[in-house]
Amino acid sequence: MKMHTLTIVGVGLIGGSVGLAVKGRGGAARVIGVGRKLSTLDEARRLGVIDEVSLDMADAVRRAEVAVFCTPVDHIADQVLACAAGCAPGTLLTDAGSTKAAIVGAVEGRLPRGVAFVGSHPLAGSEKRGPEHARADLFEGRLTVLTRTERTDPEALERAAAFWQALGSRVKVMSPEEHDRALALTSHLPHLAASALAGLLPPELSELTASGFRDGTRVAAGDPALWAAIFEQNRDAVLDALRLLRDRLTAYAAALNAGDRAALDALLTHAKRARDALGS
Amino acid sequence: MKMHTLTIVGVGLIGGSVGLAVKGRGGAARVIGVGRKLSTLDEARRLGVIDEVSLDMADAVRRAEVAVFCTPVDHIADQVLACAAGCAPGTLLTDAGSTKAAIVGAVEGRLPRGVAFVGSHPLAGSEKRGPEHARADLFEGRLTVLTRTERTDPEALERAAAFWQALGSRVKVMSPEEHDRALALTSHLPHLAASALAGLLPPELSELTASGFRDGTRVAAGDPALWAAIFEQNRDAVLDALRLLRDRLTAYAAALNAGDRAALDALLTHAKRARDALGS
């Protein structure tokens, strides 16, 4: 996929990695980065993540054939709608948000004719923030979920797929709701569990942690505001997932309490098989 | 600490790493490895982890000045008692078990005069198993907990400290009960949470996992039998820790359910600070 201008709204870890990947692969003649702080944008340009900086989101998006919104999930829909009005027909708008149903639902049916939005979620990231942690290979070999609804334009979906594939990603098409239910289990719940564990650690026991605790709580260092917005946008599925986890922990406690070694072994063995199947 | 003969009972990841570290630092003229399977022991000798192999645990321990038991926690006390009878006065027995109160309690007061046992727990390891994953630097910069009770011989405690320090470890002295309560939170609970999370993953969602899920569940690949024994030996503290985690998850659910963004932010922010304080 080759374009003249790509605009990235939100040049943090994800947006910055989109910029590095596109520029590294010659996917766009010009990459404009949009943000609220000129100092961050200038730093991103200095790092080679973007070519141009802009504080005027609508203007920068209007100048692009493709714009990708890499901002917090509770900002994306409003930003897309604010920018779409001025876009030329044929403009593709997409995003990198961790939730999809609320965003897609808020945008669909409200775009000018010929301007398309395709919800995307690259399953890549880190607890780190900022363009200084961006990586040209962040999406390589990873999966990006693209959403399709009854209103999705097939051609726009193909262009969005080509966009993420050009960054090295595989793509998978799901409905927004299917995405959100799955990610509640595979991403949002692990974040809550990590956060709950990290929050239980009395500071004086820090020295008694090893890799099990550190690996298990790593994502809890993620930005609280970003994650609170994700949980709120996917509330019902997250609450269902939390219930599953609490029930499962209750099963471990019951087995332990009853001295039921066979039940405990079965729980641990089932989980080990599931984890082994994932690979490292 | 320099000795003629060190015997390692159980030459897996931990026992093998003790062997590599001692041999790499010239800490013993001879390292005997004891196990149940000759093929594993021969492999460990071929890898340079041990110098001699033995299937006769009591004999191999009798020939050493120091013996370290790196076997499952539910075997250690019986093995120590089975070997101690034939040991010369001055022999130091220690272990690497993840629980301490049950082991120390079962051994204390039952040793021949002049033979000492000091409970140890190096906070290092991996979900991997076997001497092929042993590393000479496994203990470097890590912490080893040594236990002290009213019956602990101060000179034996010093020798045990010198032993682990010679492998690059820092040491910290705690009571067995204090160790077990702390490790319930810092190690046993994270393992249960990882196991519960991994066990909830439907296989068809595997492709939708990313680093959050993978990091958060890594330890769930550990050996179920080893961990079931750890949980059973530390049952009360583990049940208390499980209760804390379930209550904390309930607090996240309540905040989310009530749409109480301030409460959700507070939970996430507190946890982030705790995790940030740990470093990577």
Name some characteristics of this structure.
six-stranded parallel beta sheet; homodimer; 9 strands; alpha/beta
Short description:
Two copies of one chain form a homodimer. Chain A is an alpha/beta fold and 280 residues long.
Task: Count helical runs of chain A.
Answer: 11
User: Which residues of chain A sit in consecutive blocks of at least 5 with pLDDT less than 50?
Assistant: none
Q: How helix-rich are the residues of chain A, as a percent range? A: 40-55%
Give the strand order of the largest sheet of chain A, numbering strands 1, 2, ... along the chain: 3-2-1-4-5-6
Main interface by residue count: A-B, 85 and 85 residues
Look at the helices and sheets of chain A and give the structural class.
alpha/beta
Question: How many strands in all of chain A?
Answer: 9
Distance, first to last CA of chain A: 32 Å
Largest sheet of chain A: 6 strands, parallel
Order of helix and strand elements from N to C terminus of chain A: EHEHEHEHEHEEEHEHHHHH
What value does the average pLDDT of chain A take? 96
Question: Which term fits the overall shape of chain A?
Answer: globular
Instruction: Estimate what percentage of residues of chain A fall within beta strands.
Output: 5-15%
Radius of gyration of chain A: 21 Å
- For this structure, the quaternary state is homodimer
